[in-house]
């Protein structure tokens, strides 16, 4: 699905009133929380999303019956909830999500936008775009015998997705152990614990602190423990809240309202004029504002702002919005660009120093190596110009200067250059524009944070290599 179809999808789902009418000004308005569903193929992400929409009144009986009939006619009856998000023919006939789907619902305290990311390996770039917009990730694990194991082993998407979520800066993780109803599981505490015990050390290793992770057993298919806590006659040992209760209790991430505007561009299309889809990372955008599109440095006039198919007067950090704009042509706009405050734009660069964690790579890596860097929604070719230092990940101290090569598993600092200018900032100055992921031949090989932009060295008055805040790397670093 092109991201331009997102708005149509949201409308098709008969969404509830989202409380964002013209009078709903900050700070009283209900705050939005973006949640991405990630996990191995067939873990049950789409089913879970569809069932949550149903239980929150955003998927009516009639539509569900329609999906059920259509699914049955294709021999895929059990897929009826998944069809609420898997809307393309290709997705339905294959039973696989190929691009991320978006919908939203309300809980007692929050407006929640859900992003259903595809699980299949081939669709990781779409998953990266989806995750880049999220505040919270729900890592869906199938408890079914053999399925957890297949997803968690090397090459499975459980590890890769969790790592990508961490690198994309998603601080809160909810691990949903799904398919608890399945005959090989039957709400077994032993199976639940076995999965938690295997996953927890891995999550810690990639940087999630135990207090950032919640664990919830559910059945996306029967709906147990989604809205109401699971009945003790089905599961006597689980004493925590239902998935919606856990979501309701989450703290909202801080919103940098007072910073200059930064909105990452995810897509563009034409609909009564030129439209830009993206996520506000900092500042407040009001209709009537003039912004600067970087890197091309074009002035953009915002004529209206739409969120969840409803016009709103302003957009704040964390909001995924559609801007109707004047002053630019559709062809001027590309994913990965950043809309900025006109008097304080982010600069574009083709060179930056980054601290990289090389996770999976078939051999050693040397200067001159090329791969694809995902920087916000942009995918650009990147070259490792120079290896500057190898770093001990735990202490963040340099262990070797100017290494000739680095091995898989190592953390190092390198000077990187990209084919086209990109908008990045040092991670410690503004984290949302300071992260990147590296992929080669369809595999995620590493992740990194921007340490500095060499041309800006004079400003920082130092020639020394600058590191991310050591205290922060455990939580925010790659
Ligand atoms: N028994 C049982 N089956 C489930 C549950 N959740 C999902 N399934 C089944 O698992 C299969 C895959 O479900 P999907 O929701 O399409 O999985 P997905 O993770 O979205 O898959 P991709 O979109 O391909 O990544 C379908 O046959 C579902 O009916 C569950 O809680 N219990």
From TrEMBL:
Catalytic activity, as annotated: GTP + H2O = GDP + phosphate + H(+)
GO CC term, one of those recorded: cytoplasm
GO biological process: one example: translation
Entry keyword set: Cytoplasm, GTP-binding, Hydrolase, Nucleotide-binding, Protein biosynthesis
Composition-biased stretches (Basic and acidic residues): 9-19
Keyword Glycoprotein: no
Gene3D superfamilies on file: P-loop containing nucleotide triphosphate hydrolases, Translation factors
Example of a GO MF term: GTPase activity
Record-linked CDD domains: EF1_alpha, eRF3_C_III, eRF3_II
Keyword Protein biosynthesis: yes
Residues covered by the Tr-type G domain: 30-255
UniProt cross-references to PROSITE patterns, sorted A to Z: G_TR_2
Region entry Disordered, spans: 8-28
Compartment(s) of residence: Cytoplasm
NCBIfam families hit by this protein: small_GTP (TIGR00231)
Membership in a protein family: Belongs to the TRAFAC class translation factor GTPase superfamily. Classic translation factor GTPase family. EF-Tu/EF-1A subfamily.
Protein name: Eukaryotic polypeptide chain release factor 3
Organism: Cyanidioschyzon merolae (strain NIES-3377 / 10D) (Unicellular red alga)
């Amino acid at each position: 699905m092109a991201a331009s179809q997102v708005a149509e999808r949201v409308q098709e789902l008969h969404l509830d009133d989202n409380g964002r009418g013209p009078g709903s000004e900050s700070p009283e308005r209900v705050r939005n929380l973006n949640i991405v569903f990630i996990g191995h193929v067939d873990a049950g992400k789409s089913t879970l999303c569809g069932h949550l929409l149903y239980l929150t009144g955003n998927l009516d009986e009639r539509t569900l019956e329609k999906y059920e009939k259509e699914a049955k006619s294709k021999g895929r009856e059990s897929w009826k909830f998944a069809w609420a998000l898997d809307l393309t023919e290709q997705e339905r006939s294959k039973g696989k999500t190929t691009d991320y789907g978006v919908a939203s619902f309300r809980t007692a305290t929050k407006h929640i936008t859900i992003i259903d990311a595809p699980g299949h390996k081939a669709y990781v770039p779409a998953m990266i775009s989806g995750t880049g917009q999220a505040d919270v990730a729900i890592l869906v694990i199938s408890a079914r015998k053999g399925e957890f194991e297949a997803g968690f082993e090397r090459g499975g998407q459980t590890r890769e997705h969790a790592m990508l979520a961490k690198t994309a800066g998603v601080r809160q993780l909810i691990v949903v152990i799904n398919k608890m109803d399945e005959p090989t599981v039957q709400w077994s505490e032993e199976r639940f614990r076995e999965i938690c015990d295997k996953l927890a050390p891995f999550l810690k290793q990639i940087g999630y602190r135990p207090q950032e992770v919640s664990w919830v057993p559910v059945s996306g298919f029967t709906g147990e423990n989604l809205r109401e806590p699971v009945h003790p006659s089905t599961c006597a040992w689980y004493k925590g809240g239902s998935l919606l209760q856990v979501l309701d209790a989450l703290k909202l991430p801080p919103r940098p309202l007072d910073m200059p505007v930064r909105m990452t561009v995810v897509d563009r299309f034409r609909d009564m004029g030129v439209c830009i889809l993206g996520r506000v990372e900092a500042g407040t955008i009001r209709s009537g504002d003039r912004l600067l599109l970087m890197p091309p440095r074009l002035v953009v006039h915002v004529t209206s702002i739409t969120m969840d198919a409803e016009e709103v007067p302003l957009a704040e950090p964390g909001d995924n919005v559609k801007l109707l704009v004047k002053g630019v042509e559709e062809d001027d706009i590309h994913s990965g660009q950043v809309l900025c405050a006109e008097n304080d734009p982010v600069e574009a660069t083709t060179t930056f120093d980054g601290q990289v964690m090389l996770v999976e790579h078939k051999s050693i890596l040397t200067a001159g190596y090329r791969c694809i860097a995902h920087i916000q929604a942009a995918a650009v070719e990147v070259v490792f110009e120079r290896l500057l230092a190898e770093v001990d990940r735990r202490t963040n101290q340099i262990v070797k200067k100017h290494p000739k090569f680095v091995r898989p598993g190592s953390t190092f600092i390198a000077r990187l250059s990209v084919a086209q200018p990109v908008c990045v900032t040092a991670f410690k100055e503004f984290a949302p524009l300071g992260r990147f992921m590296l992929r080669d031949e369809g595999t995620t090989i590493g992740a990194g944070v921007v340490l500095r932009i060499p041309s800006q060295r004079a400003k920082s008055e130092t020639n020394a290599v600058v590191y991310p805040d050591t205290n922060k790397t455990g939580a925010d670093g790659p």
